[in-house]
Design brief:
Order of helices and strands: EEEHEHEHHEHEHEHHEHEHEEEHHEE
Bound molecules: S-adenosylmethionine
CATH topology of the largest domain: Rossmann fold
Largest sheet: 9 strands, mixed
Oligomer: single chain
Helix content: 25-40%
CATH architecture of the largest domain: 3-Layer(aba) Sandwich
Amino acid sequence: MLKKLLVCSFLCAHASSVYAMQEEFIDPTRITKVPCQTQNKKGMNFNDLGPFEQEFLRYCRELEISESPEVGNILFLGEAYGRLPMRVGSEIASGLSKLFVNELSAENLQHLAKKLGIMKESGVIAGAQLADRMNLIIGDCLDLPNNEKFTRSFGNHIVDNCFDAIMCSNVLHFFDGEQVLKFFCNAFNFLKPGGEAYIFTQSREDDVSEKEMYTRRQNKTSVYIKTCFGVMEAAKKDPSILFPGLINEEWLCKTQLLNNILLGKPNGLCTFNYIPATTLQRFAHQLGFEVASKKFYSIVQEGDSIKTSEDNKGIYCGLILRKPEGYTGGHVTMETLDPAFVESCLTAKEKMKTFIDTKLNFLDQYPFVKSKE
Ligand SMILES: C[S@@+](CC[C@H](N)C(=O)[O-])C[C@H]1O[C@@H](n2cnc3c(N)ncnc32)[C@H](O)[C@@H]1O
């Protein structure tokens, strides 16, 4: 029987021997655990490529067969163990693209570094060539323009207009409003005109109903899920709130029951951002991206694998954003964008906290959250 999962906590580096493995080696080409939790407990790497990643793979193949000598830089942001770059690199074995793989946690990326080290030492030419094409960049993806290891690969250390493709999957939901804004500015600047950003994140066209969410996670955390959805449902009615799904779990510690649930969470309290598709679309518009595609997906567990499938009722959005061909508008910053939009991103956290504190009552029994009169 299919068991629907809400995967991730709800609305939840070049190869080198400097990476000492302390724990069990996770081979990025053979991830078998379901779910395969990241070492820093920020979500997981799935063991199957879903349709959105397959689409990205096709796009990368097109890049490889392009006759243009200019084509060839692919950037992965928040890649955990590097499962997707390994697929892109090994499926396009004759490829010449350079693959830049970013990840916040050195603990996660050391597994890819170890794999590339093994490939180099194996004496198999294709493996060694692929390892040479990979550049591993540890650090905050939002800080890449200042990351020396990253920028030194480019002339004058300027990373603008350098990438044909960017992939960022299951990372945006860790960001608050200001971080999401930085992310979109970076992605736009990094892309060459005509280049595409593939963004996959928890989202929904019309927001998911509490009922649907409840059926997805009918277990002991349903109180928590219902509370989050109560908060989001109320916040989305306020048009001044751009991120109604931005919640810091500390803000929810309002009742004994929620305290018990939240303070017992194994991964500790975190911030998550369940970004409505309309908000994602507003970012695309503000930055000047063309929306090449927008589809919804759901994630289910089937036996030993996690399958992603296209589903209009799914709670994940896969967006393909293109920087217009012939774009000559220069570097985008917060200062070049609409000040009102920027303000609503910068104040998103504060706004949501104030909204929760002043507009909602938290009840210790069903329905958990109620708008104040
Ligand atoms: C849920 S995993 C997703 C991994 C992979 N992208 C995928 O879809 O299978 C999220 C990853 O994003 C990383 N991450 C979170 N914030 C980040 C940041 N600011 N910069 C770079 N990586 C980040 C986490 O360390 C974690 O490995």
